[in-house]
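Chapter summary example.
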Amino acid sequence: MNTLKEISDKKLIVDALKEISERKTERLFVSTPPEFLKNELLPGDMHPYFRVIMCLSGEYRFGYYSNGLKEDILPQNLLLITLPAGGVLISKSEKAFKCIQIIFWDSLIRYLFIEDSITYWYHSSKPLQPCGQHILKSLSSMPLTEDFEEARRKLTEALIKISLLELKEDHSVKMGKAFNTYHSALEFIRTNIHNELDREIVARACGVTPSHLSKLFTRFGKEDFNQSLKKLRIERSIFLLEKSPLTVNEIASLCGFKTSAHFIRIFRKINSVSPGRFRNSIKK
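The structure predicted for these 284 residues follows.
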C-alpha cells in the first residue's frame, strides 16, 4: 500500500528537479487519450491533468497509451508526459526506484516525490504561470509525429525548469490532511467514475466518515458531495462525447449513470443542451 506524506520542506523535491533539469533527455514518451476504437481502456485509466514523470534512480515500470496499450521501463534520461485525460496506467515496479511527478491542477501545481511505497507531496500556493500554461497548451495540441519530437522534448524540458523556478519561489501554506483527503476523494471518484458511487463508498475508500467527507466537499469544493459527483460524471461524459465514437448509451454506462435517460436529463440540466446536440455542435 502506498503511503502519502505531505512535506513542508520542499528541498527534497527542489534537489530532485535540479538533478532532472541538468540531464539531457534522450527520449520522451507521450501517454495520450485513448481512441476507443477497441475499447481497450476504461475511463478509470485516464488521468485528468497534464503531468510529467521522471525517474531519478532504479527502474520505474509503467503502462501508457499510444496507439494502443503499451508497457515500458522509464530509466534515467527518459521522460513521460501524460496529456489531459491521458491513458497512463499505475506503475508496478518490482525493483527499488525513485521518481518525481509534476501534476498541473487548475488551482495549483502538485509535486510528488515517490520512493518505492512512499509518496511525498507538496502543493504550490498558486497555479502555473501564464508562460507555462502556453507550453501546456502547445504540448497538448501538438501533432504526435516524429517531425515534432524534438520540439516536444525541448518544451517539456522548459516546463520542468519553469516548475523548478516556481517551486523555489513558492511560499505554500501547509495544506494539511483535510485538503489531501478531499483531493484523494476526487481522484478516487475519477478513477471509479464508471462504477456505482455514493458518499459512503468514497468515504470508506478515503478512511473518513460520510459526514466528514461531506464537510470536506463543502469546504474545499464549495458544493455538496452529490452535486460534485454529478459534475464529475458529466465532465467525463463531455470528454467521451468529444473524443470517442461511443454511443450516448455507452457513454452513460461508462460515466456511472444507471440509465441513458437519467444521463440525458442531468446533462441537459447542467449544459442546457442534450448530449446528442452537444456532440453535433462540436462536429460543425
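To summarize the output: The chain has two domains: 3-169, 176-283.
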